[in-house]
Design a protein that fits this description.
This protein is mainly alpha-helical. It has helices at residues 2-7, 9-28, 42-58, 64-72.
């Protein structure tokens, strides 16, 4: 379990920060009419934020295959 967390730490941080940001966006900006598909519900806003946070921070993970190739040379 600890190895999994250490291997995916950036993705986990991205999910947590994105979810928090998504919920705060719903809370402070939101959508009063209910016609907005993302910000009309705290669940939708939180899940969308978590997804975006994961995708954003996963861009910064190093490519394992590329590192192994460089070590072999």
């Amino acid at each position: 379990m600890k190895a999994f967390i250490l291997k995916n730490i950036l993705g986990i941080i991205g999910i947590v920060l994105g979810a928090l940001t998504g919920y705060l966006y719903y809370q402070f900006v939101g959508c009063n009419s209910g016609s907005c598909s993302i910000s009309s519900s705290p669940t939708n806003s939180t899940l969308y934020g978590a997804l975006m946070g994961y995708l954003l921070l996963s861009l910064f993970e190093k490519d394992k295959k590329k590192q192994l190739k460089q070590k072999e040379q």
